[in-house]
Design goal:
Elements: E1 4-9, H1 14-25, E2 30-37, E3 45-48, E4 51-54, E5 56-57, E6 68-71, H2 75-87, E7 91-94, E8 123-125, H3 129-145, E9 147-156, H4 163-177, H5 212-225, E10 231-238, E11 245-253, H6 259-268, E12 272-274, H7 286-289, E13 295-303, E14 309-316, H8 320-337
Parallel strand pairs: 1-2, 1-6, 2-5, 6-7, 7-8, 9-10, 12-13
Antiparallel strand pairs: 3-4, 9-11, 11-14, 13-14
């Protein structure tokens, strides 16, 4: 099998580290690894598949020989450096928001729209974490009965806001456990204290008083499904969970899907695990999803307030399937199809 020269841009971040871990776990065919960072001196060496690779400073000339670029450095950096990687001959799989809604860039979840990968012109976008898990769960239902409307509320872990957000939650929890008050200086990453709290505000306000995170879920879902007719509304909430996002999803379809049929469809779907036995307390939680590849679905029940309605509870690890794993699955498709 051919082996590939792979760059990870943003190697020091939570997603970059998860990418490195998953490349190892899935035995990705690596020839050379280029761990690229704006501050390579902070971690000068990385190990993968029993070999050590020196960190490389992020410059426009850092991509010589790179065939696949896994990017997760922040949107502004991707905007500046992804074109340089493409110019050097790489296919860039970008985990930031920079290219997601670019009409010339495919937005891909391999379980949902793998054929779009071949349409790339050098860059493939990874969707937002909350979008990825939703479309993985909805794809088999949409194929069977055509979804007309989606109402989703997300309950998103602090890791979605990066390592400093995790540290902030833990620091606040420690102070509370010690009987100390949470002071203004203890609240930096979020609008309010996150420990023992919920914050219904992720990202900046947009038109109509939706947040950018909520608008992402709407626009990205339509693009991935290739269907602008689906009506989607979202409310995104930050919760005091370290890792894995949860979503309560209500859908209305063109034809009836019974609970039994939904379970049958979901059990056959790639990347989905059904945990659904309410009388015996069986349903997915963030702890079930943490460190796992699949998207977990439970609390499947018919919505009797509309003719063709269904409720779902969907949980997935936002750093794995919601980011790093999805990017590497795209890279695996590139390898498989020799694109």
């Amino acid at each position: 099998m051919k082996k590939y020269n792979v760059a990870i841009v943003g190697i020091r971040g939570a997603v970059g580290q998860e990418m490195l871990k998953i490349l190892e776990e899935r035995n990705f065919p690596i020839n050379e690894l280029y761990p690229i960072s704006s501050r390579p001196e902070d971690c000068p060496e990385y190990e993968l598949q029993g070999r050590k690779f020196k960190a490389v400073k992020l410059t426009h000339d850092a991509f010589k020989g790179v065939e696949i670029g896994l990017f997760s450095p922040g949107a502004t950096i991707s905007k500046e450096y992804a074109p340089s990687a493409v110019k050097a001959g790489a296919v860039v799989i970008d985990n930031t928001s920079q290219f997601r809604m670019d009409p010339n860039v495919p937005l891909v979840v391999p379980e949902v729209n793998p054929s779009d990968i071949s349409k790339n012109k050098g860059i493939i976008a990874n969707p937002n974490c909350s979008t990825i898990q939703m479309v993985v769960a909805l794809k088999p239902l949409h194929d069977y009965a055509k979804i007309k409307r989606v109402v989703v509320s997300s309950y998103q872990s602090v890791s979605g806001a990066g390592a400093p957000a995790i540290a902030e939650l833990r620091a606040q929890q420690k102070k509370i456990a010690n009987g100390e008050p949470i002071e203004k200086k203890d609240v930096e990453k979020f609008q309010y204290q996150i420990a023992y709290n919920l914050i219904p505000h992720i990202d900046v306000p947009q038109e109509g008083l939706y947040t950018k995170e909520e608008i992402k879920m709407v626009n990205e879902t339509k693009k991935i499904f290739g269907d602008d007719s689906i009506k989607i509304t979202a409310t995104c909430v930050r919760v005091p969970v370290i890792r894995a996002h949860s979503e309560s999803i209500n859908i209305e379809t063109k034809k009836k899907i019974t609970r039994e049929k939904a379970i049958e469809l979901l059990k056959k779907a790639p990347g989905v695990t059904v945990i659904d036995d309410l009388p015996n307390n069986q349903y997915p939680t963030p702890l079930d999803a943490e460190g796992k590849d699949d998207t977990f679905v439970g609390r499947i029940r018919e919505d009797n307030t509309v003719e063709n309605g269904l409720n779902l509870w969907v949980v997935s690890d936002n750093l794995r399937k919601g980011a790093a794993l999805n990017a590497i699955q795209i890279a695996e498709e590139i390898v498989k199809k020799n694109l």
